[in-house]
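Work Package 3 (structural annotation) set out to generate three-dimensional models for the target panel prioritized at the project kickoff. During this period the team completed the workflow that converts sequence records into discrete structure tokens, so that structures can be stored uniformly alongside our sequence database. As a representative example, we reproduce one entry of 278 residues exactly as it appears in the project archive.
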Amino acid sequence: MILIADSGSTKTDWCLAKEGKAVKNIVTQGINPYHQDKETIGRIVTDELITALGDDVPDRIVFYGSGCREEKVGMMTELLGKAFAKAVDIEVNGDLLGAARGLLGVEEGVACILGTGSNSCLYDGKGIVENISPLGYILGDEGSGAVLGKMFLNEVIKNKSLIEVKNDFFKTFGMTEGDIVERVYRQPQANRFLASLAPFVAKYLDRKEVREVVADNFSQFFRKNVNRYGRRDLPVGFVGSIAWHFRSVLAESAEEEGLRLGRVEKSPMEGLLRYHFR
């Protein structure tokens, strides 16, 4: 059996599979070796994952995660090796390769992640051949939930025609304009706060002004990231909550940019099962 992980900072989805079919799906805390130490990750694996697996023991482990940069791969491999001593093969990769394999398999294309943050790559069917740095939500991260939240707040507070939307926002979140400034500029993890506004944005997607904010966010992502790979002939696929929940607007923006939209999935897991059991 193979154990596949799709991990972010918030949660990790684990799928134990046999012969291409899921045997057990498990959700644990997020694992990010760039921000967490060995002890923290070890506790999550031991206390949450192994407990949930019970008597099921994987022969192989493939871990895809945010924060799995080259210098952290060894640490994650060692941790998983200690936890699963009987596994004959352990592979650790970044979440972007997981997205590419899940969306494109062994085909060429552009793979993108749109969640709290954003990322993209040019994939040749074997590996990532080019990656335009997303730069984070202050300098970049176009298309992401964090940037969507930032753009939405800017529009809803400054546009007088959206006064009822602004009032509903303040009532729903129990915040004032001053509270928002405090939360974004003086408290940690402003990107997560901004991204958490996405469901409220979706509530007003039928409003022209709000829909234009969402569309503009996606258009900036296409122009500043996807188009710069210079491969308009290839399909552009997406994983992530923002891509999934706003997929109708994403499709419209792709068409306006003259791009061919590929698969849009909330999670790469089904595609990763196809990839690893092909």
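Strands lie at 2-7, 11-18, 21-29, 60-65, 89-94, 109-114, 118-123, 128-130, 235-239, 260-265.
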